[in-house]
Design a protein that fits this description.
By secondary structure, this protein is an alpha/beta fold. The chain has helices spanning about 15-30, 75-80, 80-95, and strands at about 5-10, 35-40, 55-60, 70. InterPro entries: PTS_EIIB-like_sf, PTS_EIIB_2, PTS_EIIB_2/3.
Length: about 100
């Protein structure tokens, strides 16, 4: 069995918008039978997870480079382009 992927879900404060995205990712994981370790954090905390994370999904702006893919999830807040974002996330998780 493959290891559970650690997915960071980050926003500016780690509370409001990341909660919305976290719920959407949980639902998507269930629908696709994916076992994920979801970690909801502030964008400033991402650096603490560089050795363990497989993916960062964020509503915050980040200019830093990380050793894992970074997906912008603002579409979950606007409702525009949600399906494209979900497709992008699933592609990364299935790698």
């Amino acid at each position: 069995m493959s290891k559970k992927k650690q997915v960071l879900i980050a926003c500016g404060a780690g509370i409001a918008t990341s909660t919305v995205v976290n719920g959407a990712i949980e639902e998507m994981a269930k629908e696709n039978n994916l076992s994920l370790d979801l970690v909801q954090i502030k964008i400033a905390e991402v650096g603490s997870y560089v050795d363990t994370a497989d993916l960062l999904i964020t509503t915050a702006m980040t200019k830093k480079e990380y050793p894992f893919p970074v997906i912008n999830a603002r579409s979950f807040l606007t409702g525009i382009g949600v399906e494209d974002t979900k497709k992008q996330i699933l592609e990364e998780l299935k790698k």
